[in-house]
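Tutorial, part two.
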Amino acid sequence: MTLFTGKKVKYNGDFYRPIGSLNDDKVRIGPLRVCKENEVFWVDKSDLEMIFKTRIWVEIRGCNAIFEGFEGDLVKLGVRPSNDVEILEAKEVDRGVFESKLPKSEITRMWEERYQLGDFPFPENLETIKELDLKEIL
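Running the prediction step on this input gives:
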């Protein structure tokens, strides 16, 4: 399973990510993973079924943190300033910005949060929270 945080579009029943701006009439889209140039294609923005933004959350050590990727057996997290900083052994990397790297085996839950992107209307009947299957990810 590919974990992609950012903008997502639905086209012909499948989810993709926009490559570049959504401000033009035509949009380049590609798979929800690092992809080769031959996997990217142009579509009319009017043909997109839905457009939204996502963020992936992790529950670990009883805290919620923003998923920023895997590095080997570790999960990299963005941690909000709170008691979670101490619990998740986070380090301040910039003023008020905390990051942590913990064993991914400690993850107890992951979910994708979906929300409106700019002026695009949020898609009707789309769940705002989608639980992710840890067995597929870890």
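DSSP finds two helices and eleven strands in the chain. In part three we will examine how such features are distributed along the chain.
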